[in-house]
Write a structure and sequence with these properties.
By secondary structure, the chain is α/β, with parallel strands linked by helices. The protein contains three helices and five strands; from the N terminus they run ββαβαβαβ.
């Protein structure tokens, strides 16, 4: 995981999936840093599990704007299945070319 902070924005590039181990690291970062927005680059991720969804939902509920860059396509399916689309309406998703 690589990260840097600019003003009130934290940019994180995950080198793995958005699952429990990476969520724990992200929670630590978010709790330590004073941020208004969080950008998570998921280009290298293949999976987002329930812990990843919970993390996104919780941080958004706390008022932090989240942008996901290249989330795996399974993310959209999970959000649909869990009927969370209305709760994540403020979530920004940027799709660039995945490798």
């Amino acid at each position: 995981m690589e990260y840097h902070k600019t003003d009130q924005m934290l940019f994180v590039k995950l080198k793995s999936d958005l699952t429990y181990p990476s969520v724990k690291k992200l929670e630590t970062l978010v709790n330590v840093e004073d941020i208004e927005s969080l950008v998570i680059d998921l280009t290298e991720a293949k999976i987002v599990d329930s812990e990843g969804i919970r993390f996104i939902y919780t941080v958004m509920k706390e008022g932090v704007q989240i942008t996901l860059v290249n989330p795996p396509y399974i993310f959209d399916k999970i959000v649909d299945i869990l009927k969370l689309k209305s709760y994540m309406k403020d979530l920004k998703i940027v799709r660039e070319e995945r490798r």
